[in-house]
Design a protein that fits this description.
The protein has helices spanning 2-10, 13-32, 36-44, 59-72, 78-86, 113-119, 149-152, 157-166, 183-189, 210-228, 244-253, 286-293, 296-304, 307-312; strands at 49-54, 74-75, 97-104, 124-127, 194-197, 234-236, 257-259, 278-279. 44% of the residues lie in helices and 10% in strands. It contains 14 helices and 8 strands. The strands form 2 sheets. Strands 1, 2, 3, 4, 5 and 8 form a 6-stranded parallel β-sheet that branches. The longest helix has 20 residues, at 13-32. Bound molecules: zinc ion (ZN). Residues 103-104, 198, 202, 238 line the site of zinc ion (ZN).
Amino acid sequence: MIVVILGRYLLNPEKIMRGVKIIRKLIFLVLRFTLIPFFIREIIQRKKVTIILYHNIKPNTLDMHFKVLNSKYNIITLKNFLEARISGKVNDLPPKSLIITLDDGYKENYKLKTILKKYNMRPTIFLCGGIVGTKRHFWDGEDCVSNNRDYLKTISNKKRLEFLREFGFEEEKEFGDRVALSNNEIEELKDIVDFQSHSMFHPVLPNCSCERAYNEISQSKKYLEHNYGFEIYALSYPNGNYSDREISMAKKAGYACGITVDVGFNSQNTDIFRLKRMSIADDADINELLVKACGLWWYIRKIFDYTSQLHKLSIFKNEVF
Ligand SMILES: [Zn+2]
């Protein structure tokens, strides 16, 4: 009887996913209350600068996250860190400094306005110059990409575009609906948000030709400066992909720093074009937020090197960059 019930349960994908989600939540709950996150914050993060990354977080979740982050960390801006880093004064920043960033500039970010005003934390939102203020789409949000995402990130940029073209996607095509922030929304947010660059069209930069990669990096900076009057000093590498070539290009284009999704904390000695960042799932609960913001989750993954097997079990879903 038990075997039959178990069999029915295991054959139901929805039930499996629900079970996986519950297990996942329990793991974060247990990890949080081991007090390891507390000790990491108080011992390691105390003298470091942590940068966290969101994409398309909902206002209620952000409200909940900000409240907790405010009580555990000292929130500073990316500009605060950069200025301290340049003048050699990172050690003078508040203990447990934390910077909030959001990649891509999704139109839903506008709904965060009330929460951003409430906490006055001035996060950095990285925009794609070729997509923001238009009805163009991000290539990796298209239906044809969902089963080919990993493959498309490994092939040349030219081949990726050819693949997408077969499904009717063009980078400069205007669609019926909008996915990125509009010009008016940016105008309304600019006093409470630090807008920076995330390339023009979000390609995998190391897969691009030299000319294309440099255009992506330099044109985005120029476009955002000329069209919105921003001071663009930071580049977030799309998908977190970069190489020495992209770093040289970012320097040549006039950026002062580059942000990765390499796991770790930042200090006076961190390479300013390889700033480290912790990715937080947009739907993370407080346990998951605290376990990931202190790096514990990523270190566990590294130590056990179970990533690929656990990916198959879907336990680590929603950790896209
Ligand atoms: Zn991105």
